[in-house]
Amino acid sequence: MRNLLILGAGGHGKVVADIARQMNFWENISFLDDDENKIGKYINNYKVIGKLNDYIQLKNKYDYAFVAIGNNRIRLKWVEILKTKEYKIPIIKHNSTVIGFDVNIGIGTVVMPGVVINTKTKIGMGSIINTSSSIDHDCYIDDGVHISPGVVLGGNVFINKGSWIGLGAKIINNITIGKNSIVAAGAVVINDVPDNVMVVGVPAKIKKKLED
């Protein structure tokens, strides 16, 4: 049995389903979503068959499950739940990606079209590596991180758990981004970023503190 449940039928879920389809691995793909208006409808030709908590009763029909929820904390929470229920949690990876030698990618992570990940980089579970982003050598991306489209990371960049790197942001070599922080779209980061802050601008500076 190679049937895939995708938790989350929003815009991100559509993209995940499309990449999963192109992988030509799953026999059946279905969505779960808590929006009652979506239940019973088709998203990209795949049916929304129930709410998120229905994953419990569907274990005998679906052996794989993937969380396609944009919010980092919620996505990671659901990955942890699925692990305890012994679902197989795949890596969803578009066939146009370029991945170097000895790159490690965690379960529940999606790698979207046009991504380049260079050698010796490690990516944790439940992360989003979005369209046409570039991650250079020896980077470490922790669990539940979102690397937005067009982001460029230099070598030896460390991004802690739950952080979000916005559209087109650039981070130079040897920088650490703290946990649950946000790098705003278009920012250029040349100094380390602490936990729980938003940084903006060129060069990036702290705009505000975020709740832990």
TrEMBL record:
Residues annotated as site: Increases basicity of active site His: D138
Annotated ranges, domain PglD N-terminal: 3-81
Active site: H137
Amino acids binding substrate: G70
Keywords: Repeat, Transferase
Family matches, as Gene3D superfamilies: 3.40.50.20, Hexapeptide repeat proteins
Superkingdom of origin organism: Bacteria
GO molecular function, one term: acyltransferase activity
InterPro entries noted in UniProt: AcTrfase_PglD-like, Hexapep_transf_CS, PglD_N, Trans_hexapeptide_repeat, Trimer_LpxA-like_sf
PANTHER family: ACETYLTRANSFERASE, UDP-N-ACETYLBACILLOSAMINE N-ACETYLTRANSFERASE
Name of the protein: Sugar O-acyltransferase, sialic acid O-acetyltransferase NeuD family
Organism, as annotated: Marinitoga hydrogenitolerans (strain DSM 16785 / JCM 12826 / AT1271)
